Amino acid sequence: MAVDRGPSVLPPVAARGFTDADGCRWRLVRGPLDPRRAKRLAVQADVMSMGDHYDERAERWFPRFLPEAERPAAWLVARAGYGADGLPSYLAYEFTGDDGRVLLFVETSC
To answer: For residue 53, what are the CA distances in angstroms to 1, 56, 100?
Structure first.
């Protein structure tokens, strides 16, 4: 028998925003992005995330923020499967934080 955990918690894109583990509130600004804009943000955005995970203890989705050195290679992986019909597939979204930072959020579908 399934346990009722109340209302489901939406992932960041579906919820149009999220609060990260440090308490910063991020709001969806636009997306899915054109691949050219996403490529620019992979270099210029303050933060980049590729993939997220659900923390059952916190009952929240948390994005996986990438170190700056990993961003170019991560974008190449995402670009290869950008908007693909097969799996994995990637789409990019732009979020802004309450503090004015810009986040490139690459949603991964498996």
So the answer is: 25, 9, 24
Q: In this structure, are residues 92 and 77 in contact, taking their beta carbons and an 8 Å threshold?
A: no
Bridge-based pairing of strands 60-65 and 25-30 is unpaired
Nearest Cα to Cα of residue 62 among 15, 3, 100: 15
Asked if omega into 32 is within 30° of 0 (cis), the reply is yes
Q: What is this structure's pTM? A: 0.85
Going by pLDDT thresholds of 50, 70 and 90, the confidence category of residue 84 is: confident
With a CB cutoff of 8 Å and minimum separation 6, the contacts of 1 are none
Closest CA relative to residue 31, chosen from 106, 88, 108: 106
Bridge partners, 94 (sequence order) = 30, 104
pLDDT in tens, 48-75: 999 777 778 878 777 889 999 999 999 9
